[in-house]
Amino acid sequence: MQLEVDHKFSHKHILGLDHLSPEDINFLLRSAASFKEISTRQIKKVPALRGRTVINLFFEPSTRTRLSFEVAAKRMSADTFNIAASTSSLKKGETLIDTARNLAAMQPDIIIIRHSHSGSPGLLARHTRASIINAGDGTHEHPSQALLDMMTVLEHKGRLDGLKIAIIGDITHSRVAHSNIIGFTKMGASVTVSGPATLLPVGIDQLGARVCSSVAEAVEDADVIMALRIQLERQQDPLIPSLREYASFFGVNQRVLSLAKPDAIIMHPGPINHGVELDPDLADGPRSVILDQVTNGVAIRMALLYAIMGGGEG
Ligand code: CP
Fold it and tell me: Whose CA is nearest to atom 3 of ligand 1?
């Protein structure tokens, strides 16, 4: 496998896309495109991270992110370990910092963390010597998701610069939306967002997104429509009258798709509430690239693990 190595990736941690330059993002996207081929081989394993130890520390449910980080690490020959909060000593009252210090005492190279509190990956980075990867922290960022989304768009559109990306749904609670707004605008795309007024955070335009009051305005001539789940688990009191009303005003369906460019693609980070934020016919239709996003998740996470380990050099 030949990697283009004309860029020095000098980050120890991946806490958010905020910290990465367009050159860093470009490097990771190109690296991931090279790593993707490994998953198509009969023997899906390379020795790039042999001897490295990766710990998955997930305090919130996950299917795609947790498994794809583990698959990525194993395909690069790292030793991987998973800790679920529900079966750890956190249940006995141990703090996150104490947990991190105890994990660090076992000399892992990388800790991948998902946590409901924004900023917890940064806290770990300050208290351990391991490299930390943010696998989603509260409503803050989900950098590996945005990278795999950019990789998927790049594959289907051949470029990111000059594209129009429409993100529809619960923007307030979506770390995916925040990382995608940061990432796509850094790479020269324009991002519009729309959703119920109660789910559009004040100041989101400062990240670079244009806020649209109607879905029709947001998706007009869009190259990409990204539907997001309503995160009821992060709402103390309901912020929408009902899922049925949400679906009728903000659900992405054939009528919404017809307002976008004729070759617009449909994306969703998952998990999908079929028939709420996205019509099932579109989710499974020819314009959907949702499973490509999942496939690319493994390649992006291989690229991230490799890059923060200094390109695999010990
Ligand atoms: N997209 C995403 O983060 O999915 P999971 O919650 O299943 O990891």
Answer: 65
| Nearest protein CA to atom 6 of ligand 1, as residue | 62
SS3 200: coil
3-state secondary structure at position 270: coil
Q: Please give the distance, rounded to the nearest whole angstrom, from the Cα atom of residue 100 to the centre of ligand 1.
A: 23
Note the pLDDT tens digit of each residue in 21-71.
Answer: 999 999 999 999 999 999 999 999 999 999 999 999 999 999 999 999 999
Tokens of 18: 């905020």
Our answer on whether the CB atom of 195 is closer than 6 Å to any ligand 1 atom is no
Give yes or no for residue 62 CB within 6 A of ligand 1. yes
Whether pLDDT at 20 is above 60: yes
Is the peptide bond between 271 and the residue preceding it cis, with omega within 30 degrees of 0?
Answer: yes
* 142 Cα nearest atom in ligand 1: 3
Q: Torsions phi, psi of 79, nearest 5?
A: -90, 125
Q: Tell the burial category of 74 from Cβ atoms under 10 Å away from its Cβ (0-12, 13-18, 19+).
A: middle
Alpha-carbon distances, residue 273 vs 34, 226, 237, 253, 268 (angstroms): 33, 14, 20, 13, 10
